[in-house]
Amino acid sequence: MLRKMFVIFGASDVLWMVFAVSQASQIDIFPSESKIFAQIGDSVSLTCSTTGCESPSLSWRTQIDSPLNGKVKTEGTTSMLIMDPVSFKDEHQYLCTAICKDKKLEKAIRVEIYSFSKDPEIHLSSPPEVGKPVTVTCSVPDVYPFERLEIELLKGNRPMKVQDFLEPSEKKAQETKSLDVTFSPTDEDIGTALVCQATLHIYDDDSPPKVRKTTKELEVYISPKDTAISVNPSTRLQEGDSVTMTCASAGLPAPRILWSKKLDNGNRQLLSENATLTLISMRAEDSGIYVCEGNNPVGKDRKEVKLTVQEKNFTVEISPGPQIAAQVGDSVVLTCDVRDCESPSFSWRTLIDSPLNGNVRSEGSKSTLTLSPVSFENEHFYLCTVMCGQKKLEKRIQVKPYSFPSNPEIEMSGPLVSGNPVTVSCRVPNVYPSDQLEIELFKGESIMMNKTFSKDVSKKALETKSLEKTFIPTTEDIGNVLVCLARLPIDEMEFELKQRQSTQTLYVNVAPRDTTILVSPSSILEEGSSVNMTCSSNGLPAPKILWSRQLSNGDLQPISENATLSFMSTKMEDSGIYVCEGINQVGTSRKEVNLIIQGRESNKDYFSPELLVLYCASSLIIPAIGMIIYFARRANMTGSYSLVEAQKVC
After folding, report:
1. Mean pLDDT of all residues in the chain?
2. Does residue 297 carry a pLDDT above 80?
């Protein structure tokens, strides 16, 4: 009898399908199994072989005629269907067809898919603590088909819970299934093992199911308690003493011990992680509350102890005081003085630990820090630290550099003229800090303006600050006083010079005005008459008087700088417009008068001075001409123009 064998195998399973064909067309098949189970992700090969046929035609297909999703490899009388890796789409009934001449033989095999590749996982909701409920979760990841899954949780050999999942899944997918158990651990549970066992019943016959399990030792915790502190020699100590404090705390696992000290702000400063804390050479500032804390993963417990360290009595004084204002460029000496300490040790530093920028000298019970010259870099809190044995004391002094070297400067934009606006500027040169400066401007007892200045934190420098005020002076301001007052208080500090001031008397100029001309006897005269024209003008300073005669072209010809212009014997050509000007440095005021000289009527009995002049002139014509020229020039210089004086010469 001829036999044909049909072989099916995979990574974990091998199935053979055998076709037996004889000359009598008999078929034998083995093995008798009609299906195999394939793990998702594994590789499975199905092999179909024939015997008794020299050149068979072999092919593969699914029973529902869906895609094979595998690779087919045929050689001779053997054909292989390879699925690598196996997935949900490979779960089918597969048929191998063999055609030998006019005969057709088929054999079917079903491939069932499952997923059970990972051991269960055990998770605890919190560290297990005696007497406190904790939830244990046993989960089985990536399982399929989960309706065949059974999960059991055991504590030691005692089952805690069994759970299966009977409802079939609506879709083909790997899922994570779990069970939860909540219980309260006891002392007896310490060291007990938790066992999570998962069983997947994938076979329909009596074949053993697939089983996976995970074991985890149950670490049961006890929160720290009964924390206690022992102190040796005592909680009350003297400066220089040492103390040892030992802390113990019960719990499981054994609590970790932490020592700390309470700070003034409520926080704690960690000191040690040992059970024993030793403090040597204690100082007064070591007094306080010390805390021992025992902690483990499930809790903490604290105990406190108060230590009191009595200090030795010695004192430190720093001068000139807690604060000092120092003029930039000057020298300042800070002195640290110790009392009741035989051999003190001194050191100086700034509060922010920047360079001192000064010279230190220590001798006996005193130490000095000299800052010379004072600059902006000296704006610090300086600390003098004194060690007396194991005792340390510190005193500090604040140095505030300032610059306020000179009085304010008052400047005017121009001369003071009544009625004209003028700007007064009050400048304070080389001042620091300028944000502390206040400038006030007074006129008499009345304040005109004040000004403060904002702070520029980006720089430290000497600055000139000023205040400007525009006002209109009046005659009432004459003799009044401008006062520029500058104040420089430094953060409420007391120092010698807080304010400076400058004063300036107001000299108000008044432009000439109310210029008047008084003509005596009249501005209309007969030829030969005398006339006096007197000019006056008001102003500050007193205006200068200038007489001029207006020429035919409109120009003015200066005549006199006297207030009175006199004509002793007028002539027709003296007629004209005469101009008086009041002049000072801030203005000019002008007044005009029209002087009219009329001709005299004929009179035989009238003895004319002019005839006398002609008579005299006829005898001394040349000297007369010279004298006339001399007195004409003199009149121009003196402001007096008199023909009578000229006649007296004759």
Report:
1. 84
2. yes
CB neighbours of 459 closer than 8 A, spacing ≥ 6?
A: none
Q: What pLDDT is stored for residue 134 in this prediction?
A: 94
As a whole number, mean pLDDT of residues 608-621 equals: 44
Identify the three-state secondary structure at position 408.
coil
Q: How far is CA 103 from CA 22, 60, 109, 603, in A?
A: 12, 17, 21, 189
- Both tokens of 469, joined, read 């005020």
DSSP 3-state of 572: helix
The CA-CA-CA angle for residues 208, 210, 211, to 5°, reads 115
**Strands ordered across the beta sheet of 524-526:** 524-526, 587-598, 576-584, 544-550, 556-560
pLDDT at 493: 65
**Structure confidence at residue 621 (pLDDT):** 46
pTM, two decimal places: 0.43
Sheet holding 380-388, edge to edge: 323-327, 391-402, 380-388, 345-350
Would you mind telling me the total number of residues written for the chain in this entry? Answer: 650
CA distance 96 to 49: 9
The phi and psi torsions of 636 (rounded to 5 degrees) equal -65, -30
pLDDT score of 28 more than 80: no
Report the percentage of the chain scoring pLDDT > 70: 86
- What amino acid occupies position 407? N
Burial of 216 (0-12, 13-18, 19+ CB in 10 A): middle
Is residue 431 within 8 A of residue 408, CB to CB? The reply is no
Q: What was the pLDDT predicted at 497?
A: 64
> Of residues 83 and 342, which shows the higher confidence score?
83
Q: CA nearest 306: which of 244, 358, 236?
A: 236
Cα–Cα nearest to 477, from 501, 442, 502: 442
Asked if residue 427 has pLDDT above 90, the reply is yes
Q: Where does the pLDDT of residue 165 fall: very low under 50, low under 70, confident under 90, or very high at 90 and above?
A: confident
Give me 271's structure tokens: 């000191």
Kindly list the distances between the CA atom of residue 37 and the CA atoms of 86, 93, 205, 362, 644, in Å, as whole numbers in the listed order.
11, 12, 13, 96, 162
122/132 Cα distance (integer angstroms) = 19
User: Which residue ranges form the domains of the chain, and what is each CATH number?
Assistant: 6-115 (2.60.40.10), 118-217 (2.60.40.10), 222-310 (2.60.40.10), 315-402 (2.60.40.10), 409-505 (2.60.40.10), 511-645 (2.60.40.10)
DSSP string for 225-265 = EEEEEEEES-SEEETT--EEEEEEEEEESPPEEEEEEE-TT
Residue 591 Cα distances to 523, 549, 594, angstroms:
14, 12, 10
Which H or E run includes 617? helix 609-619
CA atoms of 246 and 277, how far apart (whole Å): 6
Residue 601 is predicted with a pLDDT of 62
Angle (CA) 577 578 582, round 5°: 140
Measured distance between the N- and C-terminal CA atoms of the chain, rounded to whole angstroms: 196
How confident is residue 12, by pLDDT bands cut at 50, 70 and 90?
A: very low
Q: What angle do CA 75, 79, 83 make, to 5 degrees?
A: 125
Q: What is the CA radius of gyration of the chain?
A: 63
- pLDDT (0 to 100) of residue 352: 87
User: Which residues have C-beta within 8 Å of that of residue 169, sequence separation ≥ 6?
Assistant: 144, 145, 146, 147, 175
DSSP H or E run through 613 = helix 609-619
Q: What order of strands is seen across the sheet that includes strand 463-471?
A: 409-412, 422-431, 463-471
Tokens of 308: 């009191």
